Amino acid sequence: MPQAWKSHWPLPDQVDPLLGEIDRDRLIHTFGNLTLATISLNTTMSNHAWEAKRDHLEDNSVLHLNRCILNQAREAGVWEEASIRQRGEALYKRAVKIWPRPN
Known about the structure:
By secondary structure, the chain is an all-alpha fold. The chain has helices at residues 17-27, 39-45, 50-60, 64-76, 81-98.
């Protein structure tokens, strides 16, 4: 979800506009919403709608990290707040396995 999400990522009708805006503004800065992209790919994707971002990732990224996003979105049929939270949780679980805390 882009930082300027309001242009291409409208809130669902059933979501309270104020609470939805607060939630999205918080989510855009979480690990579940971040990925790696080259400077040119990141610039190309910019603040576009998910469909355009998805197409750019599919065509221009070979990173497993990005393939996981695409697969998760394909399974869910969307990429939205719940998807971002789910991905963040999965990244957290993977990180603690790779870099466990000291005893």
